[in-house]
Amino acid sequence: MSTEDLNNQNMDRNRYSYAKTSRGEATRNKLLAAAEEVFGAKGYYSASMVDITLKAGVAQGTFYIYFRSKKDIFEALVKDLSHNLRREISQAVSGAASRREAEEGGFAIFFSFIKEHRNLYRIVQDLAFVDEDLYKWYYRRFAEGYITGLEAAMKAGEFRHLDPETVAYALIGIAEFLGMRWVLWEKEPVPEKAMTAAMSLVMEGLLGERR
Amino acid sequence: MSTEDLNNQNMDRNRYSYAKTSRGEATRNKLLAAAEEVFGAKGYYSASMVDITLKAGVAQGTFYIYFRSKKDIFEALVKDLSHNLRREISQAVSGAASRREAEEGGFAIFFSFIKEHRNLYRIVQDLAFVDEDLYKWYYRRFAEGYITGLEAAMKAGEFRHLDPETVAYALIGIAEFLGMRWVLWEKEPVPEKAMTAAMSLVMEGLLGERR
Amino acid sequence: MSTEDLNNQNMDRNRYSYAKTSRGEATRNKLLAAAEEVFGAKGYYSASMVDITLKAGVAQGTFYIYFRSKKDIFEALVKDLSHNLRREISQAVSGAASRREAEEGGFAIFFSFIKEHRNLYRIVQDLAFVDEDLYKWYYRRFAEGYITGLEAAMKAGEFRHLDPETVAYALIGIAEFLGMRWVLWEKEPVPEKAMTAAMSLVMEGLLGERR
Amino acid sequence: MSTEDLNNQNMDRNRYSYAKTSRGEATRNKLLAAAEEVFGAKGYYSASMVDITLKAGVAQGTFYIYFRSKKDIFEALVKDLSHNLRREISQAVSGAASRREAEEGGFAIFFSFIKEHRNLYRIVQDLAFVDEDLYKWYYRRFAEGYITGLEAAMKAGEFRHLDPETVAYALIGIAEFLGMRWVLWEKEPVPEKAMTAAMSLVMEGLLGERR
DNA sequence: AATGAATGAGAGTTCATTCAT
DNA sequence: TATGAATGAACTCTCATTCAT
Questions:
Q1: Stated pTM of the model
Q2: What pLDDT digit, counting tens, does each position of B41-52 carry?
Q3: Around D182, how many Cα atoms within 13 Å sit in the side-chain half-sphere?
Q4: The CATH number of A1-68 is which of 1.10.10.60, 3.50.50.60, 3.20.20.70, 3.40.50.300?
Q5: How far apart, in whole angstroms, are the C-alpha atoms of residue D89 and residue D108?
Q6: Which of A99, A181, D6, D89 is most open to solvent, judged by the fewest CB atoms within 10 Å of its CB?
Q7: pLDDT at site D11
Q8: Does domain D71-211 sit in CATH 1.10.357.10?
Q9: Which of C118, C127, C163 to mutate to test the interface with D (most CBs of D within 10 A)?
Q10: Which nucleotides in chain F lie closer than 7 A to a protein CB?
Q11: Helices and strands (H and E) in chain B: how many
Q12: Could you give the count of Cα atoms lying within 13 Å of B122 in the half-sphere of its Cβ?
């Protein structure tokens, strides 16, 4: 899963009120952490503001000092998630010796990331109905980095030419579904035999008759 | 997308009240059609019973003659969707002359199906938090048919051996993400170049070094 | 519990539609029987018309051919209950050799009656809020018979003179609470020791210093 | 009505949310007062949350800050009633010079209590179908205190021996029915002649042939 | 910066009753 | 006489958000 990540987000960090004191900063972070847990456990719609503020240990009114609305904090969380996932993958990929290594490393990082962030990751699905634009943005952003990497590899002759966008979405789809099947459903790492089969399927597909 | 569909559902059709008159049958169908539209447009949580009954043109109380709850009709819809999708694919695949044709036919049918049922298809995502078991059931059921077809093809030597379950989830992931990218987001058919690239990627992956 | 019962009810039997056919008569009786069971098991407010018609095996609409409303059938039931209870007591009492025997017989019949009609008997309490007038009527009617019997016994010198109405309500209160304590709560007959104690308390109270 | 009251309730006061400010405390009390009135006037089932919050002058949602549910506040009310009634009686009885005085004082306090709390008192009847256990608890608790007092008087030779539990329920029954007949129905105090007759009936019954 | 009481619209659901057949 | 589909007002309860302190 090779991807060159873009370093800075060009959508607002949408922070509503920049905390001016360290006490405020701490409160904001407690809220964010609580929200990640609660949204992850219950999903966007079933999570309530009471759940979040209770878990954060602050009064309900306090929440609205730092975030505009329930949707607001949810979006902040999704952007963080997107940012961190892409950064981790890009770091893993940048150290790869070969293309195959890069792809394998990308998949592996992806699986370990969603294992760590299982809950929050799941609720990205809720996004489709909470904020469709952000939902598209999330996957497009992911795909962008992928496309750049694939184009470079194709130009360099490491992979045969195939429409890069199609390939990018196909590989993301594979990663998501294997992650769902094992990491989310079984709460275990993707097994060796599945990693092997998936990598073989993907590499043969990318190399094709060229070999 | 080759798949041998299982003929009978082993989960209840869970019809709550068998309409005893044709008028009742008609009302039930109106409700089902309205729910499909409303759930599709707004998602499970944002859709309200008022929305559904208003669109169906019946009183709110009437709904509860035919369905136990909001969740009940949602699940009925998902089961219908699952059933119909698998039936259509299995029909398309059964007439294929070769394995390649079968795979291509399966993908094509899948894309046209979600185009037709765009709204309802989208809400399967909501399932993860509405009824996790049904959510897993939906994909497992889908994968099962796939796995059967893949195993047969591998045994017959048409494809090289790769863990069939992994391949099944990978192919479903590809189909879902290409469908999302074009059918759901752009509201257009998956373009020729994408179909070509995807089929080439998949077929080379499945044939591999065997060729 | 001596009581001369009045033979005919002077409040309407409040039958809404006199069944004209034997089929209709049968349906009406099925409804009455079902209502007794359902009201008894759930209480007036928690019992639903669906419960009643389902148990009677008729359509919901059919109910309204025979009764004006939910309240209507409830009141019909209460009147039946009142009538039957008073008739049974009056029969038991009329054969008594002595006053003491009459009182004992009255209590005994009362306890066995509420054992047989435990459920319906309980819901007379609901009456207080369903139809206050009928509620008062129920107890006044009961008291009337009692008063008549007590006055006769006092005049005959079998009991000392005490305000008969006060005594009537006191004795009804005793019977109700002993019945509640054992018959309703423990679902067993009132134990021998309680019967003995109660009769002794009552008889000494009624005989007083006269003895 | 002699009774040694138990000092502490062993069922939770079941306060759901301790109001943290005096404003909150005031709101909770308004709600309690409104509920007492409304439940008393209409009974548990006919009383609606709208009635209660409207009478309390707060929004509907406010109710649920202080009480878990409609049933919750109802039970809180019943427990308060039980507690207060038993406390008042126990105070009145503790100052009595003789047993006869104690009994008379108990009856009198009981009648004046239900006159003051006519509304709430009535709804104890609803309890049988709202929460049967609490219903039994209410009367058992009442009887317990009574039994203790009676046993002491019997041991001291003030009353002859009669099964104390039977006598307790009998006396409670008398009090309830006389209270119902005059206080609840006529909205007047129990008349002198009824008090005299009842006390004479009870005292002779309790003294019996011993005298 | 923080509190927590208060809001009120809106949610899903129930149910006695009506009415066309 | 009987049906059962349909009604719609009313129900209890939830919850994101506001605001006085």
A1: 0.88
A2: 999 999 999 999
A3: 20
A4: 1.10.10.60
A5: 9
A6: D6
A7: 37
A8: yes
A9: C163
A10: 1-20
A11: 10, 0
A12: 26
